[in-house]
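INTERNAL AUDIT FORM
Audit reference: QA-55
Scope: verify that the stored structure record matches its stored sequence.
Auditor: D.O.
Record contents follow.
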Amino acid sequence: MEQIWAYQYDENNLYVSPVEILYIEDDDGNVTKIIPPNSTEVSPGDLVHAKWTGTEWVESATDEYIESLEATVSEDESSGEKAMKAVADILETMVRGDS
């Protein structure tokens, strides 16, 4: 069966990570889809700090924070290095709990 993902959020409704949706088949062949708690099948897309409203993901990062990620970095950094730095900044902010 194809692996299908849900998108988990924390107690502040901020996106945490993808989680696998499970399918359990009973003895009669009935299949039940199990979506983990605090998860949705709606993708957060490319939002920087996705926040779940109960019906959709919205951007919770400030304009200033997003602009800081888009700011020009020294020319000797490759685009891959820039992307890794942006991801590291996002993860650090998530761990600290900043919004």
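Auditor finding: record pair retrieved intact. The mean pLDDT is 86.
Action required: none
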